[in-house]
Design goal:
Helix content is 69%, strand content 0%. The chain is mainly alpha-helical. The protein folds into 2 domains: 155 residues, no CATH class; 54 residues.
Length: 211
């Protein structure tokens, strides 16, 4: 297998792994915080055409009324994600799965999108593959995907990120042990030390013969 082909296969495998982690149990947990906010506003877009914080029955606000204007029109966050979620609701119906699906797809497409962007900007496949690989193997990216995958499987979010934090510590401990074992294998530079001693002795007594 040629090098370009192997890199493509590696990126593809990463996308497949990301799909497994991202889409597993996508609808099995309640929407939380910003997710719920976006979903509620998206549902109101379907009813009123614009994201309204107040629909006559309930109020959406995380900033004590500072996130909407005097007409209850939302102004705290950009509207694009809200309309994306509204389009998903329109196509699939209002549900937890529909609320998360478009953003899960965008997260999954991050790696190939990085490849296409780098290829277009630099017009070089090597740079494009390196850019995609850098994102794919970015430690924060991988651990966030892993943590959210655990959340999708049913674990509480705090526990999922605690597991990731413990993994960070374990990885650091393993690397430290490996480094320590490698350092112990290094022998003292006896010849260099002897040469340094001889040089120092000669510098103190330049006329005397070197021992």
């Amino acid at each position: 297998m040629s090098r370009p082909t192997s890199v493509v296969v590696l990126v593809a495998l990463g996308v497949v792994l990301g799909a497994v982690l991202i889409f597993a149990g996508l609808s099995q947990r309640y929407l939380w915080d910003d997710e719920a906010e976006t979903a509620l506003l998206a549902e109101r877009v379907l009813r009123f055409g614009v994201p309204l914080a107040w629909d006559g029955a309930s109020l959406v606000s995380q900033e004590c009324g500072q996130d909407f204007d005097q007409n209850y029109v939302w102004r705290q966050t950009p509207w694009l994600p809200i309309y994306v979620a509204a389009a998903s609701f329109k196509l699939l119906g209002v549900s937890t799965f529909a609320a998360r699906l478009p953003f899960a797809l965008l997260g999954l497409l991050a790696v190939p999108s990085m490849y296409l962007l780098a290829r277009r900007v630099f017009n070089d496949w090597t740079t494009a593959h390196l850019a995609a690989a850098s994102l794919l193997f970015s430690v924060p990216f991988l651990f966030v995907v892993f943590a959210e995958g655990l959340v999708a499987l049913g674990l509480p979010r705090w526990l999922s990120y605690l597991i990731v934090w413990v993994l960070f510590l374990l990885v650091a401990a393993v690397l430290a042990l490996i480094g320590r074992s490698q350092l112990r294998k290094i022998q003292p530079p006896e010849r260099t030390m002897k040469t340094a001693k001889d040089t120092a002795a000669w510098a103190r007594h330049p006329t005397s013969p070197t021992p």
